Amino acid sequence: MSVTISIDAVPTGIFVAACYDATGDAVEIVRAEGYEAAVALASEHKTVCEDCATYGILASPVMDVEGFEVNLANTNARQLGATIDFDFGDDLYGACDPADLLGAVLIALAQEHTPIERYESRTSIFGVGARVIDCGFDATNYLSRIADLCVEAQRLGREVTWG
């Protein structure tokens, strides 16, 4: 599981659908106003693409804010929150004013934040078996990206969300 921290975005009414080329890269095949129009145009593509005819095509909404996302594993999100003294909640789902999160991030960056501590567990959750070694992670990169996200959210007058 993971947590994505992002700016509260609003759908634009435009929908896109993509097909994947031989290298696995997405290639936009449809961009239309409204879901129904996108699906209708995507249906035409199915007549020439065996993969899309077999597996279908998903039309996705275009949001007004894109590219400002930070994705963390649940454990890393909890450790990051504890390190910067910010509560992402028990279920790692919520929203806040960007100034609140930005304040916590800037304090951590000003304190020359070091990598999150490492830990070693000698047993699995079942009490026997696997030996798990977590090498920690350097939160500085995440903190810088979250700070940029918060600044953009403030500029737009939007909340920061996570889940």
Could you please describe the fold and organization of this structure?
- By secondary structure, the protein is an alpha+beta fold.
- The protein folds into 2 domains: about 10-65, no CATH class; about 70-160, no CATH class.
- It has 5 helices and 9 strands, in the order βββααββαβαββαβ.
- The strands form 3 sheets. A 4-stranded antiparallel β-sheet has the order 5-1-9-6. A 3-stranded antiparallel β-sheet has the order 3-2-4, covered by helices on one side. A two-stranded antiparallel ribbon has the order 7-8.
Topology:
Layout: E1 2-7, E2 11-20, E3 26-33, H1 35-46, H2 50-55, E4 59-63, E5 69-73, H3 74-83, E6 94-96, H4 98-110, E7 119-121, E8 132-134, H5 140-156, E9 160-162
Instruction: Describe the largest sheet.
Output: 4 strands, antiparallel
Number of domains: 2
β-sheet strand percentage? 25-35%
Helicity, as a percent range: 25-40%
| Principal-axis shape | elongated
| Helix-strand string | EEEHHEEHEHEEHE
Report the uncertain regions.
118-124
Oligomer: single chain
Number of discrete helical segments: 5
Number of DSSP strands? 9
Mean pLDDT: 84
The CA-CA distance between the termini, in Å, is 10 Å
Based on CA atoms alone, the radius of gyration comes out at: 21 Å
> Looking across the biggest beta sheet, what order are the strands in?
5-1-9-6
The secondary structure category is alpha+beta
